[in-house]
Amino acid sequence: MTSPTYAPSAELASKAHVDAAKYEEMYAASIKDPDGFWREQGARIDWIKPFTQVKNVSYDFGNVNINWYADGTLNVSANCIDRHLATRGDQTAIIWEPDSPDEAAQHITYQELHDNTCRMANVLKDMGVGKGDRVVLYIPMIPEAAYAMLACTRIGAIHSIVFAGFSPDALAARVNGSEAKVVITADEAPRGGRNTPLKTNADKALEACSDSVKSLVVRRTGSDVPWNDARDYDYNALAAQAATTCAPEEMGAEDPLFILYTSGSTGQPKGVVHTTGGYIVYASLTHQMTFDYHEGDIFWCTADVGWVTGHSYIVYGPLANGATTVMFEGTPTYPDASRFWQVCEKHKVNQFYTAPTAIRALMGQGDEFVKKADLSSLRILGTVGEPINPEAWNWYNDVVGGGNCPIVDTWWQTETGGHLMTPLPGAHATKPGSAMKPFFGIEPVVLEPASGEIIEGNGVEGVLCIRDSWPGQMRTVWGDHERFEKTYFSDYKGYYFTGDGCRRDEDGDYWITGRVDDVINVSGHRMGTAEVESALVAHEKVAEAAVVGYPHDIKGQGIYCYVTLMSGEEPTEELRKELRTWVRTEIGPIASPDLIQWAPGLPKTRSGKIMRRILRKIAENDYGSLGDTSTLAEPAVVDDLIENRMNR
Ligand code: WTA
């Protein structure tokens, strides 16, 4: 199968940081001499005490230990703010675009970012937060989210952001899991014209947390919220009194920078830990190279800071590079489907980075919404979060990019801190749907799933592992290093296991084929089927549940649930609704089941293991190729499931 390729214009390639020859040269150098390559790249960051060591990594199972620049010291907020002040104090650091187009955008200069970050840092200090303490952020996409992240890094506290769409239960689990001292939240979160009562949700969560946890409340809409004087601190009042200077704490390169909870194939979400030095080097380098970022560019990543994409490509990467980064509070379709494009026009965006699910949803609304905006400022387009289908890719390329903007399809993960595979805009002729090439320092290997043997050559498919380490790699699971080793280093010894499948085509270019484990990707949101199952079985009428993904036109994957009820319970339409609401309350709206099939029984092996392969096939409406069902304890349950399947 050959794919059409789209080469960058000669003009773009000639102005790019990296052209085809330069990529080959830099990539070869990064693999041949990682220490030399990353020593040089380490210089893009200001160190308080320069590092002498570069890479010090063991992937040995039982002793996985990842260190980069370990003897250097630095401060991330100083790198994202202070070092820019002399040359670009008056330049806009953040353009904040509110949910409603009728509300004025804000342009926050680097000097203002400095002052507000210091204010927030001083408020946190006064609340007793210090180096190594955890602070949870449960906050809308408002400038204070960036101030809070940077304030934590300034005083050496470790932030853990919980997406504002998560439920109080999910928030409580993360506050308790990270033993946070403070939760930063806001009165309400406006999104798509509706206000989520964030403070009320946070209050509910805190009922399940220690009394010592304090909350710092940012005023966003100014609406009345319940107030507990013993616990709640008024950010706006305190910040107005706080000093606009705060000395940055000297941090070790391997001190934790942030924790971000993400879903795995088993159990509850795990706290991915990123550290200070390697992460910021990697975020900065990937932001500059992948988006071919140049001085003066306006960069917009539409993600939420609750996800890793928002960490690396709204806040840390762009600000470390002295960029102007757009922060958008709203949704792609409010007030209508031209909002993204209106914002691109209004702020003269040069690089635009979004998710395939948004592209598919907007494509479905027709071209007029795009065409009425002037998109001539756009130079590079990016996608992230899930495989992009060629139809959506082509629409993005032709209608949004006018055929002039290289598309960078960036493959990476919460665990990887930054892009691991992506075309570089000036270097590679892209193919719709392919993540193309490894980034500098990244050595992908394709393995035979069962044997773990390396598959050499082109035109092959298997599971995707990475041979060696890179500076942006996660270091551990918060509080559970054993789980870290088991999840990423035990299945294929000596490699980092990504959980994704991949194909290397005849030209040696990479295509991500999706997760090979029980993680699903719903509208670019990563979810463990185990989490949804455990929410379902927590309902008193549910005896057993199995959850799988199935192809969904807009969301990429939808959530398909097989539910066995307690004996005597009636499978009614009301109960279906009730279960849907139940899961939304337990986890959050993003986990809402799309299809619920009543299953009198689930296909199990004689040892009692649920055969998910079969459930996946039925959910995909591909029951003709179920494979061997002879090992099932009760083969007849499969016929019933096929008969009553929901996705026809
Ligand atoms: C998937 C998001 C195909 C993949 C940054 C990965 C992708 C998971 C792509 C990580 C892409 C991300 N093409 N699949 N360009 N980008 N994925 O942790 O399955 O939320 O393992 O990080 O998303 O999701 P996460």
From TrEMBL:
At which positions is ATP bound?
385-387, 409-414, 500, 515, 526
Q: Which residues form the Acetyl-coenzyme A synthetase N-terminal domain?
A: 23-80
AMP-dependent synthetase/ligase domain sequence ranges = 82-469
Keywords in alphabetical order, please.
Acetylation, ATP-binding, Ligase, Magnesium, Metal-binding, Nucleotide-binding
- Quote the Gene3D superfamilies the UniProt record gives: 3.30.300.30, N-terminal domain of ligase-like (3.40.50.12780)
PTM comment: the record says: Acetylated. Deacetylation by the SIR2-homolog deacetylase activates the enzyme.
The entry marks the following residues as binding Mg(2+), namely 537, 539, 542
What reaction does this enzyme carry out catalytically? acetate + ATP + CoA = acetyl-CoA + AMP + diphosphate
Q: Pinpoint the AMP-binding enzyme C-terminal domain residues.
A: 531-609
Q: Which InterPro entries match?
A: Ac_CoA_lig (IPR011904), ACAS_N (IPR032387), AMP-bd_C (IPR025110), AMP-bd_C_sf (IPR045851), AMP-binding_CS (IPR020845), AMP-dep_synth/lig_dom (IPR000873), ANL_N_sf (IPR042099)
Q: Which family does it belong to?
A: Belongs to the ATP-dependent AMP-binding enzyme family.
Q: What does this protein do?
A: Catalyzes the conversion of acetate into acetyl-CoA (AcCoA), an essential intermediate at the junction of anabolic and catabolic pathways. AcsA undergoes a two-step reaction. In the first half reaction, AcsA combines acetate with ATP to form acetyl-adenylate (AcAMP) intermediate. In the second half reaction, it can then transfer the acetyl group from AcAMP to the sulfhydryl group of CoA, forming the product AcCoA.
Cross-referenced PANTHER family: ACETYL-COENZYME A SYNTHETASE, ACETYL-COENZYME A SYNTHETASE 1
Name by which UniProt lists this protein: Acetyl-coenzyme A synthetase
